[in-house]
Structure formats: C-alpha cells, structure tokens
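BACKBONE STRUCTURE TOKENS:
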Amino acid sequence: MTEQTPATANVAGPIWDDDAPRAPQATAADKALFDGALDAARATGNALDRAEHSEQAFQSGRGGLQEMVFDRARADALLSVASSAASKAATALNTILNMQV
C-alpha cells in the first residue's frame, strides 16, 4: 500500500487554487519611493568620491583644507543616514520574513 503525503492526499486538482490571494502590484508611489532610496545611495557614493577627491587635492597642494573638511563631513553625514536607513530596512524585512502565516 502506498502512503499518501498531505500534499497529495485526496487532491482533485492543482494544489494552488485560482482563488488564492495575489500579491499586490507595485504602485507608482512604491516605485518612486524605491527610486528615491536608490538616488540617496548614489548621492552617498558621489559624496564619498568627492571627499576622496578633495583629500587627494589637498595632499597634492591643489585644494584647500576647508573644502576637504567640508566634503568629508558631508560624506560622513550621508553615510550615517544611509547606514541607519539600511539598518531599519533590514530590521523591517527580518520582521516580515519571521512572520508566521
């Protein structure tokens, strides 16, 4: 006698029914929010590149100390904000993935 698993026992049709709820589609607002997050990440990367360029210019005598310090402080602030946002997003995703349905 063959043993039936719960997934195949007395199943007349496909396991997934067409009446099952569907995942919501992304809206324009969702896409705009995601694009904003990507733009912020790009801005942080650009600020870090500019800070590095300012440091190299100062070391070679082509740039000023004030510009270098300002660019580094701006890059550090943007990196701190990006790090905090990434941490909150990871926490939210972890919470969602650990939900029991």
Observations:
- Residues 31-97 form one domain.
- DSSP finds two helices and no strands in the chain.
- Residues 65-97 form the longest helix (33 residues).
